[in-house]
Amino acid sequence: MLYLIIYAFCLGILAFIYARKMGYYGIVWFLVSIIYIYIPFVSLYLLASLPNKNLEKRRKQERRLLQKQLAQRRYIPTNSSSVIPPQTISDDQTIR
Length: 96
Known about the structure:
The protein is mainly α. The chain is 61% helix and 0% strand.
């Protein structure tokens, strides 16, 4: 019986760490893991199937940063020395 309690506690700690890493409430997942002691990997399987909230937050921040940078770069001065010609080398016809 003691082994079962230790096993459930270790599984709860694992679920706690993984949940915190993914942006969920660790204590809730710890308790869920302890409650489902007879089906040991249900909580970890369920947690693994959920989307990663921290990753979604980071993607939104990066998207906002990129949009901000693109909005700043839309202004191109007309007297720039890096004018792109309308025709490039690859547009020339090949000789057969």
